[in-house]
């Protein structure tokens, strides 16, 4: 009898998460979003690359959700373009957009002859100013960057976060360089 009870209990626990996920109320969705954004104050060097990217996406989508906008989806090819640019800025000690359209085309997110929309935000910081929360907050305080984050035309995003700063900084305060490429295919 004990054995049977244990099996039923295990089965119920295994099914409980799936059953709980079905009736997602706005309150539950808000709690999940808050939990996903919770590491926003942590320096990206202390997070796994995927986690730093996920936290940054969470914070950006939180800003969109507050204004009734659909969330952006992380896109692999846009992320390739973003990571390459952040890495290039750190390695070559420069901070500029450059030809981001060519980078996105080279990453094969869009084709030259198709209809598409693209945008890009870049940032870098050191110490506390290198956290995802500080970077997203700075972008939201800048009209051009804010416009990209809140644009209805964009559906996809690529996020590239690389340890290091594109300019010489304090050695005791590690930096991080961010590139977000926004896009929508025709």
Question: In one word, what is the shape?
Answer: globular
Strand content: 15-25%
Overall average residue pLDDT:
81
Structural class: alpha+beta
Low-confidence stretches at least 5 residues in length (pLDDT < 50)?
A: 1-24
Order of helices and strands: HHHEHHEHHEE
Task: Work out the radius of gyration.
Answer: 20 Å
Helix percent reads 40-55%
In what order do the strands lie side by side in the largest sheet?
1-3-4-2
Number of helices: 7
Distance between the termini: 61 Å
Largest sheet: 4 strands, mixed
Instruction: Kindly state the number of beta strands.
Output: 4
Describe this structure in words.
- With 186 residues, this protein is an alpha+beta fold.
- Helix content is 49%, strand content 17%.
- It has 7 helices and 4 strands; from the N terminus they run αααβααβααββ.
- It has helices spanning 2-21, 26-37, 49-66, 76-92, 100-106, 132-140, 143-150; strands spanning 73-74, 116-126, 156-163, 175-185.
- It has a 4-stranded mixed sheet, sandwiched between helices.
- The radius of gyration is 20 Å and the shape is globular.
- Residues 1-24 have low confidence and may be disordered.
Question: How do the helices and strands line up, and which of them pair or pack?
Answer:
Elements: H1 2-21, H2 26-37, H3 49-66, E1 73-74, H4 76-92, H5 100-106, E2 116-126, H6 132-140, H7 143-150, E3 156-163, E4 175-185
């Amino acid at each position: 009898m004990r054995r049977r009870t244990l099996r039923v209990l295990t089965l119920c626990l295994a099914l409980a998460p799936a059953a709980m996920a079905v009736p997602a109320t706005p309150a539950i969705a808000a709690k999940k979003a808050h939990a996903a954004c919770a590491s926003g104050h942590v320096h990206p060097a202390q997070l796994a690359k995927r986690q730093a990217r996920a936290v940054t996406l969470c914070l950006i989508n939180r800003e969109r959700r507050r204004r009734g906008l659909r969330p952006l989806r992380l896109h692999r090819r846009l992320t390739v373009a973003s990571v390459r640019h952040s890495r290039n800025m750190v390695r070559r000690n420069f901070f500029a957009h450059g030809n981001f359209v060519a980078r996105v085309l080279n990453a094969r997110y869009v084709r030259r002859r198709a209809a598409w929309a693209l945008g890009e935000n870049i940032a870098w910081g050191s110490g506390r100013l290198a956290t995802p929360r500080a970077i997203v907050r700075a972008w939201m305080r800048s009209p051009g960057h804010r416009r990209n984050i809140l644009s209805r035309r964009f559906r996809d995003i690529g996020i590239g976060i690389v340890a290091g700063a594109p300019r010489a900084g304090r050695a005791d305060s590690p930096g991080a360089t961010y590139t977000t490429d926004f896009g929508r295919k025709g």
